[in-house]
């Protein structure tokens, strides 16, 4: 039966002040102010307490890092020393059971913040974790959340001039054959798909040139997206110049990655010409404001990138460099850091919502999510303004960002309620907190 989400307090959509009608997993009608839906047999959900926005889309994360949040070995460091402190701890302890709990926790946390589709850049494959993507599918299915399964990889360890230790890298053939396996099993290009696959060599300092070119060829063959970290730090610039004789964007072009399939995590240290080149080739950029501030990495040139033609999405990143998985909080952080980069008038809450919804959907290559409109998937996040932090609020949509909304009261994905009364419908939060917390203890004992 169709459902009329009736008379929301506010809604992030044009001509939908009277609400939206959802049927068979999709949005079928926008109801103007004072209007009523066209059909007869329609159930009603009274949304008069709710601010309704498109489900948020997270385009960069590392779920396993939830096990090393605020880790004493890594706090107060910038990226390279931060990674070098954590690699051996991850290598020893990220086993399938812990990885499953980390995935469950990150997905649950994201969804409770209003996220309805997530990608997880899973690049760590110590022995025994070969089925990481399969574990993520099982966990996402339990929650009902969409995922771009981002099959990451590292094959350049210290002995070959890379940054990570030997114990967390795989050889190139093992990586490429698992990429094909994961694509064959889970990559679904149909409208409303729960899972798609992206290939994601980790970063210039952890991956060989050949793995970059082979991954691009596989993505072309199977019509899937490509993802990597790029231009996150000045250390990375120096690494690329020293090891490849060129800057990161030139390297990207050299390995065949300047195209619309690609979205990059961070994208901070681009010069003017590089911004134009990326835009011309429609390369997407996932802006990770919280992580960039935590690691003091720098400020993404979001406005110039968008103006040049690049889709800009949003990601929580981390979780050890965030150290949470709250995408709504990252929208607030995006507003703040971008106002420091630009000014208050040219960066609005609407810009930040756009990055976390439409922009992220474009980064993932999806045109069926990210907006509230007829024909789009019914992926929606609902927030109340009942907490003390909202008391006195004028503009409800601006208030979500400026007053600091954290938790969705309700979440709908493909027309199904996955969060009700601020709790996931299919997850015991108390038990999850206990089990994940217990698993994370091993990562501290490794010190
Ligand atoms: Zn990252």
Question: Which descriptors apply to this entry?
Answer:
single chain; 447 residues; alpha/beta; 8-stranded parallel beta sheet; 6-stranded mixed beta sheet; 14 helices; 18 strands; binds zinc ion
What does this structure look like?
With 447 residues, the protein is of the alpha/beta class. Helix content is 37%, strand content 19%. Helix 3 links the parallel strand 8 (115-122) and strand 9. The model has no long low-confidence stretch (mean pLDDT 95). It binds zinc ion (ZN).
Rg, rounded, reads 21 Å
Query: How confident overall, as mean pLDDT?
Result: 95
Largest sheet: 8 strands, parallel
Q: Please state the structural category.
A: alpha/beta
Span between termini: 56 Å
* Contiguous runs where pLDDT drops below 50 for at least 5 residues: none
Small molecules in complex: zinc ion
Approximate strand percentage: 15-25%
User: Which geometry do the CA atoms define?
Assistant: globular
Helix percent reads 25-40%
Number of strands: 18
- Give the strand order of the largest sheet, numbering strands 1, 2, ... along the chain: 7-8-9-10-11-12-13-14
Q: Please report the number of helical segments.
A: 14
């Amino acid at each position: 039966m169709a459902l009329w989400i009736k008379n929301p307090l506010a809604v992030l959509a044009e001509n939908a002040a009277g609400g939206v009608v959802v049927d068979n997993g999709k949005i079928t009608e926008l109801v103007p102010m004072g209007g009523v839906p066209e059909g007869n047999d329609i159930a009603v959900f009274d949304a008069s307490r709710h601010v309704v926005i498109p489900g948020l889309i997270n385009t960069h994360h590392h779920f396993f890092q939830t096990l090393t949040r605020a880790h004493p070995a890594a706090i107060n460091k910038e990226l390279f020393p931060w990674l070098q402190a954590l690699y051996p701890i991850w290598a020893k302890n990220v086993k399938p059971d812990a990885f499953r709990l980390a995935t469950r926790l990150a997905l649950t946390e994201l969804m409770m913040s209003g996220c309805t589709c997530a990608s997880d850049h899973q690049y760590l494959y110590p022995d025994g974790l070969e089925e990481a993507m399969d574990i993520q599918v099982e966990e996402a299915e339990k929650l009902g959340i969409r995922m771009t399964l981002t099959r990451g990889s590292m094959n350049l360890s210290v002995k070959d001039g890379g940054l990570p230790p030997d114990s967390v890298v795989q050889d190139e053939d093992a990586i490429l054959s698992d990429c094909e396996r994961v694509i064959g099993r889970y990559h679904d290009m149909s409208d409303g798909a729960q899972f798609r696959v992206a290939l994601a060599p980790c970063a210039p300092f952890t991956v060989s040139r050949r793995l970059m070119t082979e991954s691009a060829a596989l993505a072309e063959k199977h019509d899937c997206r490509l993802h990597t970290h790029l231009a996150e730090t000045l250390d990375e610039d120096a690494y690329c110049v020293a090891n490849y004789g060129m800057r990161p964007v030139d390297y990207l072009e050299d390995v065949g990655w300047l195209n619309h399939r690609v979205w990059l995590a961070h994208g901070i240290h681009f010069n003017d010409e590089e911004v134009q080149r990326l835009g011309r080739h429609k390369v997407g950029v996932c802006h990770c404001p919280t992580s960039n501030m935590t690691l003091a990495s720098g400020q993404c040139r979001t406005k110039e990138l968008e103006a040049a033609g690049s889709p800009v999405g949003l990601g929580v990143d981390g979780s050890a460099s965030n150290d949470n998985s709250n995408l709504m909080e990252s929208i607030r952080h995006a507003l703040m850091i971008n106002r420091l980069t630009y000014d208050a008038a040219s960066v609005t809450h609407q810009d930040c919502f756009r990055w976390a919804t439409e922009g992220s959907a474009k980064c993932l290559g999806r045109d069926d999510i990210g907006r509230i409109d007829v024909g789009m998937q019914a992926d929606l996040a609902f927030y109340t303004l009942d907490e003390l932090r909202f008391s006195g609020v004028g503009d409800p949509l601006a208030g979500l960002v400026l007053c600091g909304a954290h938790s969705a009261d309700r979440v709908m994905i493909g027309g199904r309620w996955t969060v009700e009364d601020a709790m996931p419908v299919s997850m015991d939060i108390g038990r999850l907190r206990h089990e994940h917390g217990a698993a994370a203890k091993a990562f501290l004992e490794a010190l």
